[in-house]
C-alpha cells in the first residue's frame, strides 16, 4: 500500500491532469479541474450531480476529449481520442451496468475484443480461437483475484449481480497495466454483494494497480478509499484523507456548505 | 462446453424434426423412402442457404424481411445476363451475387449509418427488390438458361433411389463453414457479442458497426448463392421466386432456436429449422393437403417457436 499515511514521501503520480476544461454549449462541465492519482492507491472521486465528476472521468478514460488542459500518464502527456486509446495505454474502465455480454461465458467475456488465437496455421490462416488457453488464463486470473466462481464456461447471465460485477472488475484488473477506473461499481448491489465487490477492489489495489473509484455511496467510499477527490463546480475542491475527516465534513465540502479553509489542515491529503 | 446452453434450446428443434418425420411416416409410407427424403433436401436447399444469411442477421438482433425478394432479383439478373446479354455463365452468376450483395450493403449501411431499425429498412428493400425484379423481367420467366448455371441442380446417386443434388452438398458445406466461423473465430464470437449487448461490445473496443455491416453484406452473398440454387433447381429465372422462401427462411431460423432478441442461437439449428419447414410442406403434400394449409401450418409453427423463445428467456431471468 503505497498510499500509507505513515510515510512522509507521497507515492509517485501515475496519472495527472491540469486545468481540464470541457464545455457543452453554454454549460461548463469542467472549469479548470486538476487531478492526481498516486501509485497503489484507491482514489475515490465524489461530487454532487453536475459537479463535473463524470466529465472528469470521461476525459481520463478517453470517452470525451477535453477542450483545454493536459493529462499525463506516468509523466508523459497523452491525448486519448477514444476509450480504445485509453485501453491501449493500459487504462481499463468498468462501466456501471453495461459491462458484460450476458449470454456469453465468463471466459469469453474476459477475452472479448482481445481473443487469443491458436498458434501456427490454425490461428493465422483459419483464425481459430485458442479456447483452451483463454479458459485456462481466465481461471488463473480470476483465482489470483480470489473471485470465487466455479466454472468459467458458465454464461454470465447465470451469475448474481455481484458476481457479474466481479467479472467486470476482474476483467479490468486482469488486463489493466496502469489504472483501473470504476464507475459506481456497487450501485446496483445489495449489502453482501457490495462488500464482495469492495473486497475485490481492495485486492486489485494490493496487486499494485491504482484504482479510481466513482461512487455516491459514502460508507463504501470511506471504507476503502485511501484518498478522496471532491469535485465541485467543475473544479477539484479538495483532496481529503478519509481517516482524518468525518463523513459529514466531506459532504459539507461537496455541497458547498463548508469551505475548504474551514477544515482542519491535517485532513487534506 | 457442457452447461453452456440449456439442452432443450439446442435439442428441441431436432426433437421436433424427428417427431414431424415420425408423424408423416405413419401417414404415408412413401415419406420415409430415400427418394422422398432426398427430394425434401432439394426442396430445402434454397431456404437453407438463405437461412444462413438470415441467422447471421438475427444473431445481431436484426431481421431481414427482404431476403427472398433479393434472392429472386439475383436469379433474374444472372439468368437475363446470361441469356440476353450473352455474358458467360460464371460471370453472369457473379453479377447476380454482386447485386444481392449490393442489397446487403444497402441494408447494412442504412442500419449502421442512419441507424434505422432493420425491420423498416428491409421492409423497404423487400418492396424495392420485388419491383426491380418485376420491372427488369417484365414479369416474364427467363428460360433457355445455360446448362452450366443449372449444374448444381443435377444429382448423383447415393445407392438405390436416393439421389443427392450437388446444391445440397454445397448447402451443407456452407453450413459447415458458417458453423466453424461463428464458433471458432473471433469475428464469429463478435457477432454474438453485438447481438447480446451492443454497448458492452463497443466498450471492449470491438467496432460494432463494422461487425453489423459485414453481417448484412455477407447475408447478401448467401442470398446470391441461394439465387443460383433456385435457378439450378427450377431451370429458369423466376420473377416470382422467393415469395415462400422469404418467410420460410425467418421461420427456419426461429424454429432452429435462434433468438429474435439476438445473441443466442446455433447455426445448425437453422438447418434443422429449414428441414422442419421442408418436412411439413412435403409431408402435407403427400397427404394431399391443400397448399393453403401448408401456409397455415408454417404460420402456426413460427408463432410457436417465437413463443417458446420468449418463455424460455423469461425462465432464464
| Count of beta strands of chain A | 10
The number of helical elements of chain B comes to 13
H/E order of the elements of chain B?
HHHHHHEEHHHHHHH
Which superfamily, in CATH terms, is the homologous superfamily of the domain at 13-96 and 177-188 and 209-267 in chain A?
Answer: P-loop containing nucleotide triphosphate hydrolases
What oligomeric state is this? heterodimer
Mean pLDDT of chain A: 88
Task: For this entry, give a set of tags.
heterodimer; A: alpha/beta; Rossmann fold; disordered N terminus; B: 317 residues; 2% strand
Characterise the protein shown here:
The complex is a heterodimer of chains A (269) and B (317). Chain A has 269 residues and is α/β, with parallel strands linked by helices. Chain A has a domain of 155 residues: Rossmann fold. Chain A is built from 9 helices and 10 strands. In chain A, strand 7, helix 7 and strand 8 form a beta-alpha-beta unit. In chain A, helix 6 packs parallel to helix 7. Helices cover 74% and strands 2% of the residues of chain B. A two-stranded antiparallel ribbon of chain B has the order 1-2. In chain B, strand 1 and strand 2 form a beta hairpin. In chain B, helix 3 runs antiparallel to helix 4, helix 3 packs parallel to helix 5 and helix 11 packs parallel to helix 13. The longest helix of chain B has 27 residues. Chain B is globular, with a radius of gyration of 19 Å. The N terminus of chain B is likely disordered. At the A-B interface, helix 2 of A face helix 8 and helix 9 of B.
